[in-house]
Amino acid sequence: MLPFVLVLAVAFGGLGAWIASQKGRAGGEGLALGLLFGPLGVLVEALLPTVAAGTGRTALTATRGPAPGPVRPRRSIGPGDVEVTGPDDPPGWQKYRRETTGEVFWSPAPEPAPEPEPAPGPKRWERPLHPTDQEAGAV
Predict the structure, then answer these.
(1) 8-17 long-range CB contacts below 8 Å, 24 or more apart?
(2) Phi, psi angle pair for 84, to nearest 5°
(3) So what's the pLDDT on residue 8?
(4) pLDDT grade, residue 76 (50/70/90)?
(5) How far apart are CA 111 and CA 139, in angstroms?
């Protein structure tokens, strides 16, 4: 009985590895799923999305535009940092290159400055002075 179970586990592992390689995924992923979970693991591997060739991203996300790249935590932008944001970079992010090390990192785009509040006009109960009142010095 045990040899039969082992043969089945290896068969499902091989099938899972083959399906994974056909979908552009790592063969070890399919092998592990097939060995551990048998036909259920093979079914799960078959239902996983296909990976676009050469991108390492699934076909669904590969059609949504450029990836923002590895987003590192925000750093303080210093005098030796040059903005190198290009037209294909994602909106809301700015790409910088540190001149001293050549390191490229992303930083969230600065928030736009708030619009200034309009200057306060006369209050509702005040009326502007008439030119004759201004001449007489009435305030």
Answers:
(1) 8/38, 9/34, 9/35, 9/38, 10/35, 12/38, 12/39, 12/41, 12/42, 15/42, 16/41, 16/42, 16/45
(2) -125, 30
(3) 87
(4) low
(5) 43
